[in-house]
Specification:
Helix content is 0%, strand content 56%. With 120 residues, it is mostly beta strands. The strands form 2 sheets. Strands 2, 4, 5, 6, 9, 10 and 11 form a 7-stranded mixed β-sheet that branches. It has a 4-stranded antiparallel β-sheet with strand order 1-3-8-7, with no helix packed on it.
């Protein structure tokens, strides 16, 4: 049984940083595409970032230059380093496992999510 567990969310002020973690069981992250999504009330779920098996990284335009996705194979964990956070980054962040079709990422397995709130 595959399980993805996110952690690291919280309440921060604009301009501050957070690092989200996603730990996996029942699956080896380095063998799959891993991505982060986020969902804010009243908005559609939004792709944030992904890391392919090759190590290729992809980011949404809204987070490019501020967020960094990484993978530590020995820990079977994927991280999302979020810097210079803005109020519009407030959302529940989900770790996912999926695949790419052309340039589009399709998540198939979801974690339970972790809340990130950016507010002064």
């Amino acid at each position: 049984q595959v399980q993805l567990v996110e952690s690291g969310g919280g309440l921060v002020q604009p301009g501050e940083s957070l690092r989200l973690s996603c730990a996996a069981s029942g699956i080896i992250f380095s063998e799959f595409v891993v991505g982060w999504y986020r969902h804010s009330p009243g908005k559609q779920r939004e792709f944030v970032a992904s890391i392919k098996t090759t190590g290729t990284l992809n980011y949404a335009d809204s987070v490019q230059g501020r967020f960094t996705i990484s993978r530590v194979n020995a820990e079977n964990t994927v991280f999302l380093q979020m810097n210079n956070l803005k109020p519009e980054d407030t959302a529940v962040y989900y770790c996912t496992v999926g695949n790419y079709v052309s340039t589009s990422y399709y998540p198939h397995i979801w974690g339970q999510g972790t809340q990130v709130t950016v507010s002064s």
